Structure formats: structure tokens, C-alpha cells
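We store chain and fold; thus.
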Amino acid sequence: MNTSLYSFFLLTLFSSTMITLSSNHWLLAWIGLELNTLAMIPLIASPHHPRATEATTKYFMVQTTASAVILLAGAITAWQTGQWGLSQPGSATKTLLISALLLKLGIAPAHFWYPEILQGTTMTTALIISTWQKMAPLALLYMTLDTLPTNLLLMLGLTSIIVGSWVGLNQTQLRKLMAYSSIGHMGWLLMALAMNPKLATLTFIIYLLMTTTMFIMLINTMTKTTMDMGTIWPHSPTQASLIMLTLLSLGGLPPLTGFSPKWLIIKDLTLNHLAPLATLTALMSLPALYFYVRLAYFTTLTTPPITQSTTFLWRLKHTTNLMLTPITMLTMFMTPLTATLYLTT
């Protein structure tokens, strides 16, 4: 894609998200979501491959359906209450609103489109879908949180964690695996949202850091499958080590950053007399930890036979990503700042 066009679509993507984030009106929020979808479609279709075209069609159908349901919910609310305010959805529109936002976020049980679309596009576009595209629907979820049933959010969160953990076990394609990882993390986010919105903000920030770090390193090393992970070491020993630590952080292994939100969410569930749910949540996240550890094993401990021509390949690569160093440090070593971040978010 032409650089100018690419920049234009990215600017539209940013602007449309800002419209939704700053709006307190159903119609403005809907306009922001629609502009967001229209800007995302050319980015998904840019590889000009049949699989990319299929992913674009699926993304368009899913997102427009969800946006139409949100507009319908807003119209019903305006008809019932006489106002278009986001913070006061009508009683009849809560189910419509939750269904539409679940579909937009790719949270189970409305997650089936998400792995397929990530698999059909490039790693860079998959990064945008997995991070930036979550912001606008989550903002609407935050704004309407007071009227949403807590028990429903907790059950949806647990469902998402189960789906993300168990279905991710079978994946060999890294984009699909990252999609199920995102589904599982969104489940943790829903649980945090039901308990404590401040904790949900911290959880989302840490999710953004970990997912962005992982995708950038996958883009740099050009790995697409689990078998490719074993070939990273000859090309970049440093990035192979960083990928291993990032995967363990995604799995929530202490003392890495990914442990902090899970620890705080389980603590809040226990304090709210939901110890059985906290225990079940922790147990259901173990399969996800298994596939992260398995990937880390492929990356650092399972390497193909190294010949003389591949031994020093890492010396030939001089391109560096300036963004990678700070976000990698935050992905791994932010746990000591947990208390400060928890109290200030």
C-alpha cells in the first residue's frame, strides 16, 4: 500500500477512536465506530491475497452488525428515556449492548471471527486489531458499567478465560495463538471490570504492553508458526531470550509484569467472597500458561542443527527497533511498581 494512503488510514483510525472515547452521545459513539471500521478495512485487505480478502469481508460483516446493534440500543434508549446519553441505557437495551460490545471485542462466546481474521492478515495489522481496536468498545463498556449486571460480566469473563486457554492449546499458527491469548486476557479484563474499574485500567495497560512487545518481536524475526520459533536463535539470540521472557510474562508467571493484574484480580475476587470463582479462574488459566511455556521451550531450548553458514547470522543484522527496548523492560520488570500503578490508575 502507498505510504501516504497508509498514513491516512492510520490517522483516520486514531481520530475515529478518539471520537468514540470522548463522546457522551450514542450517535457520536456509533459514528466513531463506523469510521474506525471503514479505516481498518483497507489495512486488512492490503496484502491483496484471497485469505486477506476473506478476512476483510468477515471483519466488515461482524463490525457492521455490532455497530448496527449499538445504534439500535441507542435508539431504543432515546425512545424510552428521551435522551441519548451513554451512561443511562434503557433496561431493555442492556442485553443488546453487551452482545454488541462482546462481538466487537471478540470475547467468548462471540469470538469465532477473531482468530480467523488475525490469521488472514499481516502481523502488523494483527497487532492493531489486538491492541488499538479494543479501546473504543472498552470505552463504551466503561461508560455503561454502572447499569451492567456484575454476575453476567464475571461469567462472561470466566467463559473467555476457558476458551482462550483450552482452544489455544491446539494452535500451531502464532497469529491464531495470539488471538486466543487476547481472548483469555479480555476475560481477565472483564472480571477486573466487574470488581474494580481502576484495576481494569491497569490490566488493559499491561495487556497492551505485553501484546505489543510480542507482536513487534514476531514481526522482527518474521516467525509465523510454532516450528519457526526454533530458528530465531541463530538470527537473533537476544530477541530469542526476550521472546521467552515475554511469553512467560503473558502467562502470568511471577515475578514478571503479567503476574501483577492476575494477582490483584484474584485478590479482589477473594475479598468479595468469591473464592471458588477465584480458584476456578486460576485453574482455568493453567492451560494458557502451558502453551506459553511450550512456545518458550521451542524458542530457546529446541533449535535446529546449526551449520557454519548460520552460526553468525545475528552479526549481519543491524536494524533495530527503538521502541522495543522500553516496552520490553516494562513487559518484564514492572511488578515492583504494582502498588503505585494500582493506586494511581
